[in-house]
Amino acid sequence: MIMTHGVDGGGGKAMISQAERDPSIQIRLPGSSHSSPSPPPSPSLLRSKSSEPPSRTFAHRISWIVLSVILRRRRRILLFAPVIYISCMLFHMHKASFDAGPTIHRRPAPGSVYRSPQAYAKLRAEIDADNATADAISTIWKRSYKGVEWKPCVNKSNGVLPESNGFIFIEANGGLNQQRTSICNAVAVAGYLNATLVIPNFHYHSIWKDPSKFGDIYDEDYFISTLANDVRVVDTVPEYLMERFDYNLTNVYNFRVKAWAPTSYYRDSVLPKLLEEKTQVLEVFVVFSWHRVIRISPFANRLSFDAPRAIQKFRCLANNVALRFAKPILTQGETLVKKMKKLSANNTGKYVSVHLRFEEDMVAFSCCVFDGGNQEKQDMIAARERGWKGKFTKPGRVIRPGANRLNGKCPLTPLEVGLILRGMGFNKSTYIYLASGPIYGGNRTMDPLLEMFPNLQTKEMLASEEELAPFKSFSSRMAALDYTVCLHSEVFVTTQGGNFPHFLMGHRRYLFGGHSKTIRPDKRKLAVLFDNPKLSWRSFKHQMLIMRSHSDSKGFELKRS
Predict the structure, then answer these.
(1) Backbone phi, then psi, for 233, in 5-degree steps?
(2) Out of the domains of life, which is the source (predicted)?
(3) Residue 150: pLDDT above 80?
């Protein structure tokens, strides 16, 4: 044992062993179980012990426990490591919400969105600066008939008609041109069945709101006399038949004819009913026979287009010859034509007529979206409910404006019509007659067209308030004025299809020996063109001239052998 000696200054001497002062020095006593002393600790160990903090934080302890568990069960827990990592990240960012799904932004298909205003804004400077194109009104006819004039194949009969098989009474629904379809079909059916046609009755419609009768729009006497040798026409049903039905034709048996019915249906189903004869014994034992009267309502599209030529003859005769407008309409219409020819004297009296279908009811029915925003949306919902209650809100009915536009079912806007005509070569000085009802959007919608064609005219511009007063409250009579001016134009442009342009195309060919020009734009192609952000004026003009040429080829029809 190593001992140290010292003096206890006043308090006694103390003796402390080195082993007591230094615990690292241990002495083996004889009775100890250890046979050898332990080695001294290393200096590094001593330093580490001296630098260790006195205690750990609570977070450190939790981390140590979690790490221990992971290390012990690492094989199982590592399978969930990605989920744990993502959860921790979301928790850290305070966005640990798993309800929201991913948002996918898809660009609409090219041509499915109305972007014509953007195209006009991009091309406007080039349009205004384009003075190189000659006016198409003077060069529109690419083909010449070389002095050979087409002649109508319809010749009025001179013979005497056989005894009538009975009376047919039809009710025409719709506006002016749908009613015109009913009349032409009724003449064809009556001629085919050798029946007597009663002057058609016009239904009052909530859209057109026109109470006009047949004689208010057409020259009734002229209609009857023109058809006299081909089809019997009377203005009323005979007295003895009216008495039979209590003077109410709605009591007459009504045939529900399916749309586009073939001529065989009228032969096999309608004619037998028409031929039924009944006898009635009166108190004085006088027996007389009477032919049955049948009523067909509605009758707009109740005869197939695929009819024999002999039946088509009746249709052609009715539309192109017998249906002459009543004198007030005819006189005012001819006045408007004279004014248009006088205004366009610099083009030898040639003008372009455009049938523009951008009235509120047409925009609503098309189910297309334009640039009117929320106001347009509310207007269209109200217009659909007002005109076609419940039709567009039926369960399962889905409205797809983009698909409608891609399929060419959206009506062309005034702006688009202006771009098309300028692209086809009609310059700023061209006189245009616009056949249309009140344009949806008013001046805001019409301004671009007037900028491109300042010489544009309408019946309201050409006629005074006093001149239009007898017609203004009647939509069918106003449409008849448009029909007359379009009939005598050099070029007719249709923008939406329907009965109006179809009647005009045939009527114009009939009157002018085949010499008529109709432009029918390809709206499917136009939808994609107007939606192209890289569209140039040069490229657009090229496409429009191709489209105009295509209209030429469609308009040039072969004569029958």
Answers:
(1) -135, 130
(2) Eukaryota
(3) no
